Amino acid sequence: MTPARKPRITVLAAAALAAILLSLVSAGCTGNNPSPASPAATGQDTAAFISAANDCRDMNLTVTTTVGTFSYQSTSDCALLKTAVKMNASETAEVRKMLEGKSMVCGYTRGNFDPRWVTTLIGGIEYCHGDLRDGLAQLVAFT
Amino acid sequence: MRKSLLGFALLVALLAPASADVALPPWAWNAYTGTQAWTVTVTETGCGDSFTNQFTVPITFAGGTAVMGDVGHGESKGTFASPNILHFPGRTVADPPGSSQLSDYDLFFTTDCSAFAGKYDWSYSGPDGSCGGTTTLNGANHNGCPAPAVAPAIPTVAPASNSLAADMAAAQQDLDTLTNLQYTQSINDITPRFANLFAPNDGMSSDGRRNRIAELNRQTEHELQAILLQDPNNYDANMGMAELKKTPGTINDYIKYLNAALTSREIAENKVNDLQGNIEREKNFAKLLTPSNSGAVSEMDSEIPPLLKTVLGHDFSTIYPDSKKAVKAYLFATLCERTCDYLTKSASQAASAGGGETP
Predict the structure, then answer these.
(1) What is the CATH number of the domain that holds B86?
(2) Min Cα–Cα distance to chain A from B201, Å
(3) CB–CB of B181/B209 below 8 Å?
(4) Which regions of chain B are under pLDDT 50?
(5) pTM for the model
(6) How far is A38 from chain B (nearest CA, A)?
(7) Is B37 part of a structural domain of the chain?
(8) Are A25 and A38 members of one domain?
């Protein structure tokens, strides 16, 4: 290890620590229980979210797929808010404009959450309302 | 002299447009007072039987109400819901040895005064059992519109058009208003906490909005049915009726009206071409989207086959199974919410509307 690399490692460590602290603070700020999923949500996180949503519990989830990053918020009044946070960089400008930042809200009764709202793009959207639904419906024309 | 010439010219200028635009207003039965005789064909189906009778029946019009003579269960009095739609309330009638409950219904009159049509449901109950059925009424009149017994209203400079296109434009406007109100109410019904993310506050209470939705629903259905009475194949009116019926509870009616609009594979495919063109134009697409150049479109493409079997609780996969394009008209109509008019306006209409989103 050369003396020149020592400060760089220290900087990286400090940055990593700051990132961890930031993510903890950010998690605390959402105020939801249980704690929201990290951006790199796993299949288990998704399953836990679907279970919580099915029970109409407050929970957040962010999932990045091959299509883009989507956030989900379930609420105690049996509602789901789905937002297309960011589409993948390789996506066309047209699709990014039609979907990015758009949301829809889906209502259901306890025990009848439709998991396709989380696992697919268009499954079950006929029961949702919002700009995201309109954008997705329009894209169906180009399949 | 110059002053009087100027005055005359001004008078001509003021009168000319008015006299050019004056036209007879469309016939309105709710503005007529008098009695008309109609040949009414009554077809009753139910209780294991079906039969048709024909009667000559007087209808006595008295402004906003009318009394129809006996078509099987005695006279009945209705109230005009709009100029040519007469609404009859439900009632119970003696039907020996029991009685029958007749549903409320509308009679739709054509504006050329040649016909009317209506249908009501009934249920019979008596010592010999219970059963139900429907009765359709089709009225014919070969004498044209009667001379008004009351002075007609003075035509305005810009009278309402009696063309189907104008009627459809009015119905479409009501449908758009209804769609927006339903959108806002649906989100509020799910949870008010997200409402401000989607729709601006329209200043209406939920009860007020619900009442307005119910009223507009009835009104728009009346308007569209009146158009379909004159032109059963009217594409826009059938698509409008489908939109009104787009709920799981009325899925059969929804499919019926979609089928009435998209009557062939070729028509459905052409409508999808219009749909694509309208979206491309209004969104200022720089290039055609395809599954090969868009990850999202590719993902949707793979999701559609299983989705078609379940969307809105119906199996759409059997409709034009040999044309992926044609069935997209059905899928878009079902998934769209506030931009369904992309499927109803033709590409030329969209182009003449001009504009598009600024990039």
Answers:
(1) 2.40.128
(2) 15
(3) yes
(4) 1-22, 149-161, 354-356, 358-359
(5) 0.64
(6) 23
(7) yes
(8) no
